[in-house]
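Postdoc handover notes: sequence design on the structure in folder B. Input tokens:
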């Protein structure tokens, strides 16, 4: 879930940013003056939510990867300990 949330947040943020840049290059300040306060605040809220989502899901993904790394290290240590207890084969 963390990877999907992170991808969605980044995609929406990128889309909103690209849309804002396209509006700016098309009409510049005229377009900015023509938009209502509600529209501007909704874009601002969506961008803030995307940034918060990127932060939240990024932390969740980092936690999950560190847990997987610790599990892998524990598995390798247990495997090494198991191999260390075996008696070596005598060569004839």
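Designed sequence:
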């Amino acid at each position: 879930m963390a990877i999907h949330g992170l991808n969605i947040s980044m995609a929406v943020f990128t889309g909103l940013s690209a849309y804002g840049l396209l509006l700016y290059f098309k009409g510049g300040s005229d377009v900015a003056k023509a938009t209502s306060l509600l529209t501007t605040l909704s874009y601002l809220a969506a961008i803030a939510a995307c940034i918060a989502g990127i932060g939240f899901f990024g932390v969740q993904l980092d936690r999950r990867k560190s847990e997987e790394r610790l599990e892998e290290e524990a598995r390798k240590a247990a495997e090494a300990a198991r191999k260390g207890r075996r008696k070596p084969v005598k060569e004839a």
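Context for whoever picks this up: The chain is about 85% helix and 0% strand. Don't rerun without checking with the PI first.
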